UniProtKB/TrEMBL annotation:
Any GO MF annotation of the entry: ATP binding
SMART domains the record matches: AAA
Source organism of the structure: Actinomadura rugatobispora
Protein name: ABC transporter ATP-binding protein
Keywords: ATP-binding, Nucleotide-binding, Transport
Length: 273
């Protein structure tokens, strides 16, 4: 089950090239004029269509890596290559969904929120509307097109954010604990829905989580980060483990628990039941 970092991962792009290469990346922040490292050295690759989960203890730099892949932060060392382009600036090729419920435009309807980025990227009005409706229906929001964000539950807002991200047909979908602020029941439902939609659309996914179960449910491989500043401790293959009833789920959970326990992670926080 465990996979050596040097092994060629499953789901090859066909031409052998990875869609995302994170190569010996170090990232830090300036605090009081001093460089404070957050990520010491991280390397992993993501093939087209793969679902890669970033898992690790709180503060180990998961969001930092995601923001660097999105182009919001520049690494202090190493290379980030997306679709053959080194260090690309932020762009619609990498759609980002955050944990916070306030990522929608409050003055636009649900439909308007999804149409807007399509229009900005040059899609004509009629096509933008058709594509937005299609993706909102895919996320179960067909009846809420004319609602405003303040009229929606947290779960519905996250559905809109996901529909908006998928509608622009990004090269990669970057998700930073998108279900972290939801109640357990809604979180479970959205996890299952995302798994289905991700499989159907074959979107390439980089997903930050501190939940072992979420990582196994949604991921093909789990990049486990550890240490301060962090490094990639292990990359664990969890492909095909859809739910706790699957043979192999308990083993994967055990492996990931073991890796996090080595880091002193609070396991009650790391496992959503
Ligand atoms: N804007 C910032 N300025 C200074 N330090 C920061 C900034 N953002 C993050 N850090 C620091 O970088 C480190 C990594 O933070 P990051 O948010 O990437 O971790 P994380 O693994 O995503 O954590 P969590 O699971 O708690 O969300 C932490 O020590 C954090 O305090």
């Amino acid at each position: 089950m465990d996979e050596d970092m040097t092994a060629v991962p499953a789901g090859d792009a066909g031409d052998g090239a990875a869609l995302l290469v994170v190569d010996r990346v170090a990232i830090g922040y300036r605090r009081n004029g001093r460089y404070v490292p957050a990520v010491g050295e991280a390397s992993f690759e993501v093939r087209r269509g793969e679902k890669i989960m970033l898992l690790g203890p709180s503060g180990c730099g998961k969001s930092t890596i995601l923001k660097a892949v999105a182009g919001y932060l520049r690494p202090a060392a190493g290379r980030i290559v997306v679709g053959g382009r080194e260090a690309p600036p932020p762009g619609p090729d990498r759609a980002v969904v955050f944990q916070e419920f306030d990522q929608l435009f409050p003055w636009r309807t649900v439909l308007g929120n999804v149409v807007y980025p399509l229009r900005v990227t040059g899609v004509d009005r009629a096509t933008a509307r058709t594509r937005a409706v299609e993706h909102l229906e895919l996320m179960g929001l067909g009846a809420a097109l004319d609602s405003y964000p303040h009229q929606l539950s947290g779960g519905m807002k996250q559905r809109v954010a996901i529909a908006r991200a998928l509608a622009i047909d990004p090269l990669m979908l970057l998700m930073d604990e998108p279900f972290g602020a939801l109640d357990a029941q809604t979180r479970g439902r959205l996890q299952r829905e995302l798994a289905t939609i991700a499989a159907r659309t074959n979107v390439t996914l980089l997903f930050v989580t501190h939940s072992i179960d979420e990582a196994i449910l949604l991921g093909d491989r789990v990049v486990v980060l550890a240490g301060r500043p962090s490094q990639v401790a292990r990359i664990v293959d969890v492909a095909g483990l859809g739910g706790p009833d699957d043979p192999g789920f308990a083993d994967a959970r055990q492996t990931l628990r073991g890796l996090l326990a080595e880091e002193g992670e609070d396991l009650s926080r790391a496992v959503f039941d």
